[in-house]
Amino acid sequence: MIILGIESSCDDTSAAVVKDGRVLSNAMASQSVHEKYGGVVPELASRAHQQNIIPVVDDALKSAGISSAELDAIAFTRGPGLMGSLLVGTSFAKGLALSLDIPLIEVNHLQAHILSHFIIKEEKESTLPGLPFLCLLVSGGHTQLVVVEDYLDMKIIGQTIDDAAGEAFDKCAKVMGLSYPGGPLIDKLAVKGNPDAFAFSKPKLSGFDYSFSGLKTSFLYFVRDQLKMNDQFIELRKADLAASLQKTIITILMDKLIKASEKTGITEIGIGGGVAANSGLRNALRQEESKRNWNVYLPEFRYTTDNAAMIAITGYYKYLKKNFTNHSVIPDARMKF
After folding, report:
1. pLDDT tens, position by position, 15-63
2. E strands of 63-211, at which residues?
3. Which range marks the domain in which residue 290 is found?
4. Structural domains in the chain (count)
5. Within this chain, do residues 58 and 146 fall inside the same structural domain, yes or no?
């Protein structure tokens, strides 16, 4: 069974080939045009997808040693994401599937991030999570705690009520004058700083829900007040600011994850989404693993950001259940689980 996956939810165009659950290729084209704007510009993103999608799909097929005639189905990201970007991937997938007379499979982008833990690499053996599985999904647009009962049976038990953790990283990085995306830059700076140098606001929410708007406001006001006293404050304390911010965000994330594990009794733990690449968060999970008898699963860095391998592997599991999509399907920018 050979599945072609197509991902175009934001600003990365990606295509991947999965054969019998193993990833043969994962091609990617990123967009640098957004850097000077401090964030993704939807119109520019959709135009870049139109330029990139055919070369990327061609690259994925050639790297896998597969011809389009050998494909059994095409999986694509239906949502959530930017509507213009989703339209490009959806339209291409529909057209190709029709031309080859093979099934079309719609994929929820968030579920695919979670199923990235079940990607089996062609070149080596993989250790996969047992079920049920508790996943902390953390990205620029979403922060959720999800119980995974089965590959296609997932339940959200907690989520942000306002901003996502990734957005908090990026917005606070912007306050510090760092370029977009700011999250990875904060991570690099944090290694050199003192995580206990400054204290920022933490939410007080019951249950498993998150909130990061208060933290962003706390950070903004703190930096503003410090700059009034010393206009060189950010430059002088940049590493300490980054380390303190990162520690605060990770503490907020981990506190709820620990409570969720205790409440559900689930010890198979993982993370997904772009913030899953954060070194501080990965280290915190490893520390808790030994303390709490967890089995922690960390996806490879190439599978934390938006990628088509996770779309293709989700398509593989949906294909097994003959969960196909009608060609009248349209993108859903706010698609839910």
Report:
1. 999 999 999 999 998 766 656 666 778 778 889 899 999 999 999 999 9
2. 73-79, 104-108, 120-121, 133-138, 143-150, 153-159
3. 133-298
4. 2
5. no
